[in-house]
């Protein structure tokens, strides 16, 4: 199975092939396009920042701050506060486009909501904070990195610089001949990969801060309402599921069973050479097949073994039906909500089915445990691994079922195995 490409620069930095990939060039492009924007913003901030330093220095020396300086700082601060929400529109619009260089994940686009919103909404002031970050702290980081690059280039070029008539000072030593400079040049060449990683880290941090400030979070109250709405939908679904199961189990299934028996008795009473024998046999077989299908439907809604044996017993029954040895470890010391039980059962059922069909495993293991108010379900096998949700709907459907119950599904399946499916389900709402 081919490894998926890293989704963003921060992830690419953790992979061994970073230096040979295109990500260092993307980090460089992001840095280069940052310089004019951050430079222009830093100049604007220095117009007010330099007088602030003068005022602070005067206070430290015990001298009074002159009135014109105070007026200038006051007017400058007010102008920045008034203009920053407007200036940040252009800055963050460009940043949203540039961010795709190092982090292609989508960022919400800017939407004009009126002039008053630029001064009253949290999202607007987060954009202002990004503008100050880009014009204040980012230039300092790039300045330090530039000094390191110049120092490294000096080390690399020191053998050629030593040919000039003037003395050359490398770090703290004086170099007179190219031979003396060779060790420094070697060190400089060895430091080039570290500087490449350093630029990647600098760009990744800048991009992460930009994403954190510009990807406006959903309103907390709306988010809580969504969660409550999802919980209500799940409860409604569970109630309807139980009603359908009860109606089928108590109504349609017994009547179909009775019909099958009546057809069977009728077959015994009808002679084999009778014209009605063949159609009656077909009807009897169809009724029996329909009864099996209906039983499977009921089993799919909520397995009877889950009702009779509980989660641990039902999972052990699944393990006993598998064609490979399956070990079950269950540590459940308290009753579980019905939704949690049924979700966990179907997770184990689908996972074991995938193991038998696709993994080539010789054994599997199922663990059920309560930890921190959550039911943890783990299904592992010794197969060849390489499970990929993108290649089928089974794992995706499991993840959707788990998410509907408020949990999460984690998958570890490297090529060559082993495979581990871990599901965490909250046992309270």
Report on the structure:
With 429 residues, the protein is an alpha+beta fold. The chain has three domains: 10-214, no CATH class; 220-301; 306-426, Histidine kinase-like ATPase, C-terminal domain (Heat Shock Protein 90). It is built from eleven helices and seven strands. Strands 3-4-5-7-6 form a five-stranded mixed β-sheet. The protein has a two-stranded antiparallel sheet with strand order 1-2. Mean pLDDT is 79; it is low at 218-223. GO terms for molecular function: ATP binding; phosphorelay sensor kinase activity; protein dimerization activity. Keywords: ATP-binding, Kinase, Membrane, Nucleotide-binding, Phosphoprotein, Transferase, Transmembrane, Transmembrane helix, Two-component regulatory system. It catalyses: ATP + protein L-histidine = ADP + protein N-phospho-L-histidine. The chain crosses the membrane at residues 27-49, 69-91, 140-161, 181-205.
């Amino acid at each position: 199975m081919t490894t998926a490409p890293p989704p963003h620069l921060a992830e690419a930095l953790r992979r061994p092939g970073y230096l040979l990939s295109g990500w260092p060039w993307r980090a460089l492009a992001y840095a280069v396009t940052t310089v004019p924007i951050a430079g222009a913003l830093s100049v604007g901030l220095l117009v007010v920042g330099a007088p602030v330093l003068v005022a602070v220095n005067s206070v430290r020396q015990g001298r009074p701050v002159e009135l014109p300086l105070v007026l200038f700082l006051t007017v400058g601060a007010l102008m920045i506060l008034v203009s920053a929400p407007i200036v940040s529109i252009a800055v963050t619009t460009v940043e949203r486009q540039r961010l795709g260089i190092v982090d292609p994940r989508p960022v919400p686009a800017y939407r004009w909501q009126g002039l008053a919103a630029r001064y009253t909404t949290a999202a607007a002031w987060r954009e202002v904070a990004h503008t100050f970050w880009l014009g204040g702290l980012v230039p300092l980081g790039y300045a330090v990195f530039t000094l390191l690059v110049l120092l490294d280039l000096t080390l690399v070029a020191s053998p050629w610089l030593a040919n000039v008539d003037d003395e050359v000072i490398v770090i703290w030593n004086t170099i007179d001949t190219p031979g003396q400079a060779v060790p420094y040049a070697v060190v400089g060449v060895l430091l080039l990969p570290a500087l490449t990683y350093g630029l990647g880290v600098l760009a990744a941090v800048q991009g992460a801060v930009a994403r954190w400030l510009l990807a406006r979070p959903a309103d907390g109250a709306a988010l809580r309402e969504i969660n409550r709405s999802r919980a209500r939908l799940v409860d409604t679904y569970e109630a309807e599921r139980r009603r359908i199961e009860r109606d089928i189990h108590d109504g349609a299934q017994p009547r179909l069973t009775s019909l099958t028996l009546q057809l069977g008795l009728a077959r015994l009473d009808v002679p084999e050479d009778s014209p009605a024998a063949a159609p009656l046999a077909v009807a009897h077989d169809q009724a029996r097949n329909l009864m099996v299908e209906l039983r499977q439907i009921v089993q799919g809604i909520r397995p009877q073994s889950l009702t009779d044996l509980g989660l641990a017993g039902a999972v052990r029954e699944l393990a006993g039906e598998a064609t490979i040895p399956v070990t079950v470890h269950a540590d459940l010391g308290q009753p579980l909500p019905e939704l949690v039980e049924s979700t966990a059962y179907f997770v184990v059922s689908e996972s074991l089915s995938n193991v038998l069909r696709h993994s080539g495993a010789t054994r599997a293991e199922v663990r059920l445990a309560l930890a921190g108010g959550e039911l943890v379900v783990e299904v592992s096998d010794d197969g060849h691994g390489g499970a990929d949700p993108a290649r089928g709907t089974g794992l995706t459907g499991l993840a959707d079922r788990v998410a509907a119950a408020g949990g999460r599904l984690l998958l570890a399946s490297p090529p060559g195995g082993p495979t581990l499916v871990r599901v965490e389900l909250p046992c309270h709402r």
